[in-house]
Amino acid sequence: MNLFLVWLLIFGISFQAYAQGDEKKVGHLRIIGSDQTHWKQIDDFSVVLDWGFYPEPIDLRFRIGNLPEESKTEFLIFPWSHLDSVQVCDLKNNCLQAGYAHPVNEWLIPGIFPVFPLRKFLENSSEINVRIQSRNYIYSEVRLVSAEELYSITTVYSGIVFSLLALIIVQVAYLINSYIRLRSKWILYQILFSFGMGLTFLFVSGIGSRYVFPGFGFPLSLGKKIMIGYLIISGTLWVSHFLKIRQNFKPVWYFYNSIAIMTAIMVALSFTKFPRLFISRSFTVFYLLVTGIAIVLSLVATKRKTIETRWFVASMISLLVIEILNIISYRAFLSFDGRSFLFFIAFFVPINIFLTSRSVRTRIRELEYEIALRREELRNFHADKSSSDPSAKKKSTIIGINVEDTLARLNKLLDEDKIYLEEELRISDLAAVLGLSVHQVSELLNQVLNISFPDLLKKYRIEEAKRIILNDPSTNILDLAFSVGFQSKSSFYDSFKKYTGLTPQEFKKSVSPDPAEE
User: Fold this and answer.
1) Helix crossing, 276-304 with 220-242: angle to 10°?
2) Buried b (16+ CB within 10 A) or exposed e, 98-111
3) pLDDT one-digit tens code per residue, 105-114
4) How far apart are CA 7 and CA 350, in angstroms?
5) Contact, 129 vs 34, CB < 8 A?
């Protein structure tokens, strides 16, 4: 409800600002001497350019008419555009230049989009020449505005973007605090993804170029590809670890890795003259695949009761809706006019942040509960061990369970499925697969097998590492540690020494002695 009220407030302020701006409109704007195939007159003050991906310069001539003599405040603006370079010249070839390939502090009027004052250009003629060049998709509005309109547009636009950035900053701060406490990898990747969303808003909106790096020219046509590629890669890693895809859906894990690699290749190709249309379409396909598959896997995980994914499914659906609407928005919602685009972003992005935060919070609560449960079991273990009174021991939780059948299923998971290779495997995951409670699995391991859950994982992981070394003595130790499920080299070394009495290097030498020593 609060989110809706915030959105309603933004909508009302924006509508009022635009309504005030409409009262100040002056003059009229026309393109002359050009085929109308790639442009359309929207009203007396606005023309939309539609060249698509067109890397060559586009030369146009505009006529500005009916300007009140007493007015000195007419501006030609290119709002919501990601144009690399825009040049406006009078008929005597006196020119001004803007666009994100040029540092913003070199523009005559620094701003969040190209702005050109017209009065001086029109002293001798009502016509001006405009040259546009961009490797980004060119679907941009050109608008004639007064100073009052320009102020209203930039104020509303900046306010919405900064509000969204504030939401993302709060979310990232919460995630960082959670990661410091829990040290779970999926939280780290979620931080990277959210940070990428913030950077995307900052730079693709033009706010970053205006306020953060005004002296640095960087084409948004390239920046968009880098940012979108970054979001796909970090989002893929986040989804993979959040849903434990490597453990539960291994073919999908390989597929996701392939998408991440192909995305990185596309980002590298963005720095070349490789066709941007192909790169953009590839990113769209990758985004839809990753998001769509994540929704399906979330529903499967919910059915299996391995992970609580209700909020996660909703957040993924919102991401999918955002992308689908983005694909069709150019034509269906006339998004060259920033009003519809801004309202669209202001509505859907906070919703996605809310849903994602809820899914993250749900998962963090699960982790916190599991940590508390481990501490409780450790206290009970020490209490039971130190107590000499048999009546003080708690009632067994595995009475009524077919222990022999459960152990057979556990051995299958360990010997055939090798679930211990999942580096973030937790006792709650094993309990869900076996259809038991965490307490029951803990008692089964400690009382029947006389081993704790962490030691069970380490034992099987070290056995797998020994098998790999026997098959390939030249294998890299660090790669080996990560491949069998350890999260650090030191932990691998300590466990290897504990279970074999040798370091990994010593074990390698024992199974493959140096021929020179024989």
Assistant:
1) 20
2) bbbbbebeebeeeb
3) 889 888 888 9
4) 9
5) no
**Cα distances (Å, whole numbers) of residue 397 to 264, 377, 407, 413, 444:** 50, 13, 15, 22, 9
Q: Helices 504-511 & 489-500, crossing angle to 10 degrees?
A: 50
Any idea what DSSP says for residue 504?
H
H or E element at residue 134:
none
Q: Which contiguous run of DSSP H or E holds residue 336?
A: none
Closest CA to 288 of 260, 255, 321: 321
Q: Is the pLDDT of residue 19 over 70?
A: no
What global pTM score does this model have? 0.66
Span 302-319, average pLDDT: 73
Q: Give the residue-averaged pLDDT of 81-99.
A: 88
β-strand partners of 43: 46
pLDDT exceeds 90 at position 259: yes
**Which amino acid is it at 159?**
G
- Which helix (H) or strand (E) covers residue 172, if one does? helix 147-182
- For the chain, what percent of residues have pLDDT higher than 90? 9
Is residue 104 within 8 Å of residue 214, measured between CB atoms? Answer: yes
Tokens of 473: 């003595």
Provide the CB-side half-sphere exposure for 485 (13 A, CA): 27
| Distance in angstroms (rounded) separating the CA atoms of residues 249 and 270 | 32
Give the residue carrying structure tokens 């606005």.
Answer: 46
Separation CA 22–CA 142 (nearest Å): 16
